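User: Quick sanity check before I run a bigger batch. Here is a single chain. Can you write out its predicted 3D structure?
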Amino acid sequence: MLELEVAVNEFIVHTTKDIKPFIWTVKVFDISQKQKVIRADSCIKL
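Assistant: Done. Predicted structure follows.
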């Protein structure tokens, strides 16, 4: 169990060294349009 804890802690330290903020690049409208297509496609496949 100690090895797992060490591995997790090393991963956290490694991945948080150079944190960059997430920048949203897609417009909400584009996401909603894609969701409509996915829903319509799933209805057709039924």
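The helical segments are 2-15, 28-45.

User: Great, the batch can go ahead then.
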